[in-house]
Design goal:
By secondary structure, the chain is an all-alpha fold. The protein contains seven helices and no strands. It has helices spanning about 5-15, 20-25, 30-40, 50-60, 65-75, 85-90, 95-100.
Length: about 100
C-alpha cells in the first residue's frame, strides 16, 4: 500500500469510518486496517452495536439464552456481546430455572 493510501486510511480510521468499510475501499483485510492504525499510534476501537441489536440482545438474554446463543441468533460474533454482559446482568432479571434449562 502506498504511503498516501496509508495516510488516507489512517485519517479515515481516526475519523471513525468503520474498519470493514476501510478494508473494502483499500482492498485489504480488516486486520491490516487495524495494524496500520496501530502502527500510526491510534487506539483500537471496539465495535459498536446498534440500539436495536442491544435491545434484542437484552430481550434474548433475559429469556434465558447464553451470550453465545444470543450472538448466533443475532448473527454477530459473541465477542461483541461480552462488553455488554455486565449491563445485561444488571438490567435484566433472570430466573434460576432459565439458567438451569441451559445447563
Amino acid at each position: 500500500m502506498s504511503v498516501s493510501n496509508r495516510g488516507e486510511l489512517v485519517a479515515e480510521y481516526a475519523a471513525g469510518v468503520p474498519v470493514r468499510q476501510l478494508a473494502t475501499r483499500f482492498n485489504v483485510h480488516r486486520g491490516t486496517v487495524r495494524e496500520i492504525a496501530r502502527q500510526a499510534g491510534l487506539a483500537a476501537r471496539r465495535p459498536e452495536l446498534s440500539d436495536v441489536i442491544r435491545q434484542d440482545a437484552a430481550r434474548l438474554y433475559a429469556a434465558g439464552m447464553t451470550l453465545a446463543q444470543v450472538a448466533t441468533q443475532l448473527g454477530i460474533e459473541s465477542g461483541h456481546l461480552r462488553p455488554l454482559s455486565p449491563i445485561l446482568a444488571r438490567t435484566q432479571t433472570r430466573s434460576s430455572s432459565s439458567r438451569a434449562a441451559r445447563v
